Amino acid sequence: MATTPQPSHPVPAGEDPASPVHPASSVVVETIPPARIGTRLVHPVLRTTLQQFLRAGAWVADLGPRPANLIFRVTRLSEQPARVMGTPRGTRRESLRFEHFEAEWLWSAPVPDPRVDRDAAILYLHGGAFIAGGLHSYRRHTARLAALSELPVLTVDYRQLPDAHPNESLADALTAYRHLLDEGFPPEKIIVAGDSAGGGLALRLALTLRERELPLPVALSVTSPWADFDSTARLAHPNSRDDAVLPALGPDMVVRRGIAVDGELDPAWSVVNHDFTGLPPILLQVGSREMLLTDALAVARRAEAAGVSLRLQIRPSAPHTLIHLGADLLADGRDAARDAAEFHRAMIDPGRLGRSAA
After folding, report:
1. What percent of the chain lies above the pLDDT cut of 70?
2. What are the DSSP calls for 12-66, one per residue?
3. Under DSSP, is residue 168 helix (H, G, I), strand (E, B) or coil?
4. What is each CA distance from 99 to 80, 172, 357, in whole angstroms?
5. Which of 124, 186, 203, 286 could connect to 296 by a Cys-Cys bridge, CB 3.0–4.6 Å?
6. What's the pLDDT tens digit per position in 53-112?
7. What is d(CA 274, CA 290) in angstroms, rounded to the nearest whole number?
8. Cα dist. 217→126, 181, 190 in Å?
């Protein structure tokens, strides 16, 4: 799908996100065609099914520490039924085991075995609010990402609540990235990607690499990043009532019952509170009606303030996480996945698209 780049500032809530404001901005907001009928119809379906289930879980978890612990553990169990989906046809898979977590390589022909040919890779950090998601539930998505991008993908099953704080999730992401470096993958051929909690984690990993003076990846590719653990801006935005997936108080409950320590939330844990100077180019995809649009716009403002190149795609009516995860069913999701893959290929080999078009 073709998109039209338009240089502009990230815009406040309620304004047209595609209107050009500042031609010298490092942030490019791309014009995306209106949502197809399938994307529009999925909203009432999700609102009356998945969101009601999540709303009930959030209400129970908010009754106290013990109910929260129980709900977090039960939510983690939802990963197990996803085992039956297996590995998509044509995709090769190899498991890796680290001290604290597991990971897996996914790739498909003609991409060579990444354990032998250490040329380029995507490091993927899954979503799930730090209480859900994993290798099994994300396998179809990461396999598609690998095939479209023509790159091997290393997916990280980082530790989550209630057994581990997001700071430990960050430590696992850092371990996986350093593993790639130790294996000989050049940083200029590594893309760090993720969605939702994993999208925020991908950004936080890049900030940590910069702080530790470690080599940065060539690019970041994030979808609907959970980038601010302070829920104030999200709850004040109309999308908190319009999101088809996330209940309004869901993320805030996870913060209060799992992420905050002794009732305190360290602002440094939220990537939107950091200077982005020196970060690599970023592709950011987000739905126009989802709650985490406020986080995405805050990330874009940080990128602009630091002069970091960022492509912002606000996909009309795309529900949270279904921008890509719904690509099996939604044509708009397939368009978003292809746009991301095109970005990945261009970042790894800047001259490739030009040669292909010749």
Report:
1. 90
2. -TTS-TTS---TT-SEEEEE-PPPPHHHHHHHHHHHHTHHHHHHHHHHHHTT-HH
3. helix
4. 21, 9, 45
5. 286
6. 999 999 999 999 999 999 999 998 888 888 887 888 899 999 999 999 999 999 999 999
7. 23
8. 18, 10, 5
Catalytic pick among 43, 141, 165, 320 = 320
Q: Cβ contacts of residue 231 below 8 Å, gap of 6+?
A: 249, 251, 252, 255
DSSP bridge partners of 315:
287
Active site residue 320: yes
Residue with tokens 């979808």: 223
Query: What pLDDT, on a 0 to 100 scale, did the predictor assign at position 24?
Result: 53
Out of 290, 317, 324, 344, pick the active-site residue: 290
Token output for 60: 């129970």
DSSP states of 239-306? HHHH-SSS-TTHHHHHIIIIISBTTB--GGGSGGGS--TTPPPEEEEEETTSTTHHHHHHHHHHHHHH
Cα separation, 357 vs 222, in Å, equals 26
Contact 190, 347 (CB under 8 A): no
- From edge to edge, which strands make up the β-sheet containing 282-287? 4-7, 27-31, 310-315, 282-287, 219-223, 190-195, 121-125, 153-157, 102-108, 91-97
Catalytic residue among 196, 221, 231, 317: 196
- Domains (range + CATH), the chain: 40-350 (3.40.50.1820)
| Residue keyed to tokens 């996909």 | 315
Alpha carbon of 122 to those of 155, 189, 257, 265: distances in Å? 8, 9, 32, 31
Task: Kindly give, in sequence order, each residue whose CB lies less than 8 Å from that of residue 25, ignoring residues fewer than 6 positions away.
Answer: 7, 8, 9, 304
Strand partners, 7: 28
Give this prediction's pTM: 0.91
